[in-house]
Design goal:
The complex is a heterodimer of chains A (134) and B (216). Helix content of chain A is 34%, strand content 23%. By secondary structure, chain A is of the alpha+beta class. Chain B contains five helices and five strands. Chain B has a five-stranded antiparallel sheet with strand order 2-1-5-4-3, sandwiched between helices. The longest helix of chain B is centred in the middle third of the chain and has 23 residues, at 105-127. The chains are: A alpha+beta (134), B alpha+beta (216). The A-B interface holds A 25-26, 28, 32, 36, 39-40, 42-43, 46-67, 83 and B 4-5, 20, 22-25, 101, 103, 108, 111-112, 114-115, 118-119, 121-123, 125-128, 131-141, 143, 157, 164. Chain B: InterPro entries: Longin-like_dom_sf, TRAPPC. Chain B: Keywords: Endoplasmic reticulum, ER-Golgi transport, Golgi apparatus, Transport.
C-alpha cells in the first residue's frame, strides 16, 4: 500500500515529469529515468500489436515481484505512469486524479509549452495534496 | 478465461518452441528468410513449396490469403492452399494495412522476446536488485514470464483476468520440459539450429494446459 513514483511521458516518449515518493524503490539519476521512459514508450506501442485476439490497448499494468507500474494512456497520447506496491488497489483512480490535476494546473497554464518538461508549482502542490510529499 | 499461446526461448534469444490454443488471430507462417529454427512448431514453419519469386512482393503472395479468422493456420504441410484464392487482384493495394496488421510468426516471436527482455531489464533497473519481471496486462491479454537459471524463458499469453500463472510455467519446466527435452538424449540443447519440438513434449504440455481450471 505505498506509492513509489509518478511519471508523465509526452506523446513522443520524452519524460516531462518525474517524482519519487518515499524510499520504496531506489532513486535513479534523471538520465536513467529518461531512458526508462523512452523504453516504456516503445514497449507500450509493441504490446498493443501482440494481441492474440484482435485490436488491443497497450500495456496497462506491468508487475514485478515487489512493485507494479500502472499506465494511463490519454486520448492525446500522454502517458501517466504510477509506480506502486503490488497491493495498491486504487492506482487507476489516483492516475485519473493526476490527469485532472494535469489538465487544470499544466494545460491551462499559459506559460507552459506543450510537450516540454513540467515546471509548475501548482501541479506540484496538487500532486503533493493527492499523493503526499514523499 | 482462457490461454492463448506459449513461447519458449533459449538463452541465445531464439524461439525454440511455440504452441497456441484459443487464438482468434493466428500468426501467419514465418517468412522463409525470417530465421525461425526448425522444430519450433509445425503450424508456423515457413512453407518450402512456395516459389521464391513470389516472396518479392509480400502482399500479392498467396501465403497471405491463408490466415484464417478461426485461429487455425490452414497452411500446414500443404502444397496448395485449401482456401480458394480471392479473385480480386486489387487486394494488394486496397488491403495492405489489414494484412500487415497480422504479423508473421518470426516477426511476432521477435517482438515478444524484445518486450520480455526490455521489461525484464526495466524491472531490474527500477528495483535496484535482482527482481524478476512477472507479468503485464493489456485490455485483451496478459503476458506471463518465467525464466529458468539456465536462461530459458517461458512466456505465456492468457486472458487479462487470469491470476499469475508463473507456477504453471514452472510446472511445464519441471515436468514435461525436463522429462522430454532435457533428459532426451536425441535432443541437442543449445544447438542454435533446432527447436525443441517433439511429440511427447507437445502432448504432455497440451494435456497439462488443458487440465487447468483457467483453460476453457
Amino acid at each position: 500500500m505505498a506509492i513509489h513514483g509518478l511519471w508523465v511521458i509526452n506523446k513522443a516518449g520524452g519524460l516531462v515529469y518525474q517524482r519519487n515518493f518515499g524510499d520504496g524503490l531506489p532513486h535513479l539519476t534523471s538520465n536513467e529515468y529518461l531512458v526508462l521512459a523512452g523504453t516504456l514508450h516503445g514497449i507500450h506501442a509493441i504490446t498493443s500489436r501482440l494481441s492474440p485476439t484482435g485490436s488491443s490497448s497497450g500495456a496497462q499494468e506491468i508487475c514485478g515481484e515487489t512493485f507494479k507500474m500502472t499506465i494511463l494512456l490519454t486520448a492525446t497520447g500522454t502517458k501517466f505512469v504510477l509506480l506502486t506496491s503490488l497491493a495498491e488497489p486504487n492506482a487507476g483512480s489516483v492516475l485519473q486524479k493526476v490527469y485532472e490535476a494535469y489538465a487544470d494546473a499544466v494545460m491551462k497554464n499559459p506559460f507552459h509549452t506543450p510537450e516540454m518538461p513540467i515546471r509548475s508549482e501548482g501541479f506540484d502542490t496538487r500532486i503533493t495534496a493527492l499523493i503526499g510529499s514523499g | 478465461m482462457t490461454i492463448y499461446s506459449l513461447y519458449i526461448y533459449d538463452r541465445h534469444c531464439a524461439c525454440v518452441y511455440y504452441q497456441d490454443w484459443h487464438r482468434t488471430k493466428g500468426p501467419r507462417p514465418a517468412a522463409m528468410e525470417g530465421g525461425i529454427l526448425p522444430a519450433v512448431s509445425p503450424a508456423v514453419y515457413p512453407r518450402h513449396e512456395e516459389p521464391t519469386f513470389e516472396s518479392a512482393s509480400t502482399y500479392s503472395s498467396p501465403r497471405n490469403t491463408l490466415t484464417s479468422s478461426s485461429g487455425i493456420v490452414v497452411a500446414i504441410n500443404d502444397d496448395a492452399p485449401r482456401t480458394p484464392l480471392p479473385q480480386q487482384t486489387q487486394t494488394s493495394t486496397s488491403q495492405p494495412s489489414a494484412l500487415s496488421s497480422i504479423l508473421t510468426f518470426d516477426e511476432e516471436s521477435k517482438l515478444v522476446y524484445g518486450v520480455v527482455l526490455s521489461l525484464r531489464n526495466m524491472v531490474k533497473k527500477l528495483s535496484g536488485k535482482d527482481e524478476q519481471f512477472v507479468n503485464y496486462k493489456t485490455s485483451t491479454y496478459k503476458m506471463h514470464l518465467y525464466e529458468t537459471l539456465s536462461g530459458y524463458k517461458f512466456v505465456m499469453l492468457t486472458d487479462p483476468n487470469a491470476d499469475s500463472l508463473r507456477f504453471v510455467l514452472r510446472q511445464i519446466y519441471s515436468g514435461p520440459f525436463l522429462e522430454y527435452v532435457v533428459r532426451n538424449p536425441l535432443m541437442s540443447m543449445d544447438s542454435r539450429e533446432h527447436g525443441i519440438d517433439n511429440e511427447y513434449f507437445r502432448m504432455s504440455t497440451d494435456r497439462m494446459i488443458r487440465g487447468l481450471t483457467i483453460f476453457q
